[in-house]
């Protein structure tokens, strides 16, 4: 009985955040685990890049100013960035940082390392509400 | 600019009223015994970073150079300059030498606090050979001044875990590196501190300089001193204690019992406030009105240094910020805790935690 | 009758608004609530702007240093020439788009065009009058002026006509001296890719990225003023005072406290002039800092910088590329803005950047 109540409570709680509580043809736990593992492996690559003194040319690392990716605010992109003069996406801002404080060469926007850095940054900012355009 | 005299002071119950502060004419509050008042400059966290050969990261160099140049403009001259630690980024001889060279342009007597970035490469050996003692005390115009090395940690972490000093330094240099270890003052220094204070009367104003906060604010980034409550207990019996600390690269202030806490800015780069990292719990002082980033393009954004007026043992901290508006945080005698002159209405009373 | 009048006023208002439709690439011109635009006021302002009788020698007008034929500046002069060929310490900033600036003068010591316009009349090295009285005497006694002032400001008595009215009329005229609609504007805001040369297109990219220009000379996706209206120490000629900043700053702040006119000390005292924004705020962060000028029509307004010390756009680009100096080995001062640093641009990139800057010239109307 207690279990049922707990489950009901859990379902209700989840229901607040998502529109569907239970679906037919649920993902298997195995699938979910694999996908999560893949994601976290890329997050780890991102963390490595984020603390890599060779990402730029002067030894400065991203985490020096952004411990745990803080103050990168991935939830606010796309947004207007004055120093670029237009509404940009997160990877464009990452490139701005590589070019400026790190004095390095910007990466292709679909470079796997760039994707990994976004994975790391957004993972550190999980559960924060989307706020596009916010400063 | 409002010149404050004794009458206005009495009228406002001792609230600091120093509004716009002209940098070249430090406002001195008139107390009964003016000879006990003094001003010092406080520069911290420059993180001089070696690239290779004679190349250093220009951005951090410029931050320290600017602070030194501005401190040299102070009039009347400050009684001394306190350097709050983390002169170097990875504690190498090249970095420390380069930092000391920039600091040598200062026209004032300078004292130093040890930061973890100065320490963990060689456990403070080179720094000590250039600066001297890692913890010490002295008296200045009726105030007892104590400098602590608060960035020590346990022996096992320090001596057993790492292949060499470079590796150890690399880990401690990563603020968010989970392999790091919480800072502490340690038993030996606490014993020294208790002993040092034995001969000091309880009404003597005390100023303590440390690199880490001597509070437990945010463990995740080592805004934390593990034996903070033990150190605080030694200081608490004194009527008026002010702790200044670096490390956090942002404005923080707090009051715990008789102890007032002030952080100082970095000349190198600003850090986000712990609230911006949603995945870990923080105990930031409610009292603090945070500083906003002015504009990340400007490389001196949200960096700066400060000059401190000590009046009757209480501190008024004036922040000289390169891209932000200047700020003044001083002790409000009526409320019994420090406040920012500009944001009095926004501040909340302090919470009690270590 | 009253009703008819107000309808006419509304019609007039709309026609003026239409007349002032912003050129491509500009936001609406900010108009202060206490100085609305009118055709008559603008015409009066233009007359005042071009009238040399408001100088002690009778031969210097606003237009002398802000010459429409020279992009409303006075190139190739380094620093402007006032009465009797006297020179000040500043390169004349263009009036073009000054209406969008959040403050006026290189050091921003006046908040608006109204305040700015009163200064040069009584500066000993500009128009050289002792005070504003001769101006008021002239505009009150001159039949044409009095007629215009009476109409524009609804004045009844001559002694009700003050310097504020003169300033308001001049400012109204200056708010019509705006320029957009350049090849860049067509390229960027109407997506006409042929509007700029390929070299200029590459130069725009340098402007946005490696050149770091856009951080202060701002551009957005709806308009481009090419200025942040903020103050920066670039290291232009600051080293001429760097040996004695403390004594100089102290002296200047003391003089200011003693009531010495800022306009006069800035234009007649070379050392004080180099303190830049500091003379206004007294803050260390503003030492040697000057307002970011617009880049629109920059090809027409050589020489450059607050003291006109850099002759060509090519030299300006070199100056920035070096990290804030002209000759290798020139010292960089400790107060230099954090945004200035060596850029590593090659010769092609530098040439492209100059080509882009030349695309910011607006067509003559």
Structure description:
The complex is a heterotrimer of chains A (135), B (354) and C (365). Chain A is mainly alpha-helical and 135 residues long. Chain A is built from five helices and two strands; from the N terminus they run αααββαα. Chain A has helices at 2-17, 29-50, 62-65, 90-99, 112-124, and strands at 79-81, 86-88. In chain A, helix 2 crosses helix 5 (112-124). Chain B has a single domain (34-341), classed as Metallo-dependent phosphatases (Purple Acid Phosphatase, chain A, domain 2), CATH 3.60.21. The two termini of chain B are 37 Å apart. Chain C has 365 residues and is mostly helical. Helix content of chain C is 38%, strand content 1%. Chain C has 15 helices and two strands. Chain C has helices at 2-19, 39-49, 62-65, 113-118, 133-141, 143-153, 163-174, 183-189, 198-208, 245-257, 262-268, 270-273, 278-281, 313-322, 347-357; strands at 231-232, 290-291. In chain C, helix 14 packs across helix 15 (347-357). Mean pLDDT of chain C is 92; it is low at 1-19. Chains in contact: A-B, A-C, B-C. At the A-B interface, helix 3 of A face loops of B.
């Amino acid at each position: 009985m207690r279990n049922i109540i707990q489950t009901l409570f859990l379902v209700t709680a989840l229901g607040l955040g998502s529109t569907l509580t239970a679906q037919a043809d649920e993902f298997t736990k195995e699938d979910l685990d694999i996908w999560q593992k893949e994601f976290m492996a890329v997050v780890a690559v991102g963390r490595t890049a984020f603390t890599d003194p060779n990402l730029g040319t002067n030894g400065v690392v991203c985490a020096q100013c952004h411990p745990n990716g803080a103050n990168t605010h991935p939830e606010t992109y796309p947004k207007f960035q004055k120093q670029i003069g237009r509404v940009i996406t997160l990877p464009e801002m990452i490139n701005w940082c590589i070019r400026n404080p790190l004095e390095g060469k910007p990466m292709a926007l679909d470079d796997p390392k760039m994707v990994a850095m976004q994975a790391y940054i957004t993972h550190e900012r999980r559960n924060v509400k989307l706020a596009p355009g916010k400063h | 600019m409002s010149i404050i005299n004794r009458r206005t002071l009495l009228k406002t119950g001792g609230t600091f009223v120093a509004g716009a502060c002209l940098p070249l004419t430090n406002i001195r509050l008139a107390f009964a015994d003016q000879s006990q008042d003094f001003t010092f400059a406080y520069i911290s966290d420059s993180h001089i970073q070696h690239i290779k050969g004679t190349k250093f990261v220009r951005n951090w160099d410029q931050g320290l150079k600017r602070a030194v140049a501005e401190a040299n403009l102070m009039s009347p001259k400050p009684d001394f300059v306190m350097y709050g630690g983390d002169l170097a980024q990875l504690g190498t001889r090249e970095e420390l030498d380069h930092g000391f060279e920039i600091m040598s342009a200062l026209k004032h007597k300078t004292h130093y606090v040890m930061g973890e970035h100065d320490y963990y490469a060689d456990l403070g050996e080179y720094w000590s050979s250039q600066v001297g003692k890692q913890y010490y005390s002295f008296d200045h115009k009726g105030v007892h001044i104590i400098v602590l090395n608060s960035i020590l940690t346990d022996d096992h972490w320090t001596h057993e875990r790492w292949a060499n000093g470079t590796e150890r330094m690399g880990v401690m240099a990563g603020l968010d590196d989970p392999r790091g270890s919480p800072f502490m003052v340690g038993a030996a220094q606490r014993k020294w501190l208790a002993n040092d204070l034995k001969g000091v009367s309880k009404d003597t104003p005390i100023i303590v300089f440390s690199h880490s906060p001597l509070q437990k604010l945010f463990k995740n980034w080592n805004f934390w001193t593990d034996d903070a409550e033990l150190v605080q207990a030694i200081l608490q019996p004194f009527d008026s204690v002010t702790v200044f600390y670096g490390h956090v690269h942002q404005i923080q202030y707090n009051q715990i019992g008789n102890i007032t806490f002030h952080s100082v800015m970095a000349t190198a780069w600003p850090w986000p406030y712990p609230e911006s990292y949603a995945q870990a719990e923080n105990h930031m002082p409610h009292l603090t009105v945070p500083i906003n980033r002015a504009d990340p393009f400007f490389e001196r954004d949200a960096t700066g240094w400060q000059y401190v007026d000590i009046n009757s043992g209480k501190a008024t901290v004036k922040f000289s910020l390169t891209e932000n508006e200047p700020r003044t945080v001083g002790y409000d005698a009526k409320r019994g805790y420090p406040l920012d002159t500009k944001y009095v209405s926004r501040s909340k009373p302090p919470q009690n935690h270590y | 009758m009253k009703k008819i009048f107000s309808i006419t006023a509304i019609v007039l208002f709309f026609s003026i608004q239409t007349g002032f439709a912003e050129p491509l690439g500009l936001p609406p011109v900010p108009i202060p609530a206490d100085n609305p635009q009118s055709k008559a006021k603008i015409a009066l302002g233009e007359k005042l702007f071009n009238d040399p009788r408001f100088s002690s020698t009778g031969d210097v007008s606003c237009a002398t240093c802000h010459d429409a034929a020279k992009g409303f500046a006075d190139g190739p002069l380094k620093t402007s020439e006032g009465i009797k060929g006297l020179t000040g310490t500043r390169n004349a900033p263009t009036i073009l788009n000054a209406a969008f600036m959040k403050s006026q003068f290189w050091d921003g010591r006046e908040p608006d065009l109204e305040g700015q316009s009163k200064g040069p009349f009584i500066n000993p090295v500009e128009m050289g009058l002792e005070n504003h009285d001769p101006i008021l005497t002239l505009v009150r006694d001159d039949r044409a002026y009095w007629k215009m002032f009476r109409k524009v400001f609804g004045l009844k008595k001559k002694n009700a006509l003050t310097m504020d009215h003169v300033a308001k009329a001049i400012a109204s005229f200056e708010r019509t001296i705006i320029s957009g609609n350049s090849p860049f504007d067509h390229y960027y805001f109407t997506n006409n890719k042929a509007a700029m040369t390929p070299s200029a297109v590459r130069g725009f990219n340098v402007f946005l990225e490696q050149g770091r220009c856009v951080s202060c000379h701002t551009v957005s996706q709806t308009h481009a003023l090419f200025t942040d209206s903020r103050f920066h120490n670039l290291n232009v000629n600051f080293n001429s005072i760097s040996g004695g900043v403390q004594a100089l700053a102290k002296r200047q702040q003391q003089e200011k406290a003693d009531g010495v006119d800022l306009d006069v000390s800035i234009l007649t005292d070379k050392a004080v002039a180099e303190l830049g924004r500091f003379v206004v705020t007294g803050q260390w962060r503003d030492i040697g800092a000057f307002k970011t000028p617009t880049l629109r029509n920059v090809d027409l307004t050589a020489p450059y910088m607050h003291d006109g010390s850099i002759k060509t756009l090519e030299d300006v680009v070199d100056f920035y590329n070096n990290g804030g100096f002209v000759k290798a080995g020139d010292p960089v001062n400790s107060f230099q803005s954090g945004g200035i640093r060596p850029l590593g641009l090659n010769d092609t990139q530098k040439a492209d950047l100059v080509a882009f800057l030349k695309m910011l010239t607006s067509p003559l109307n």
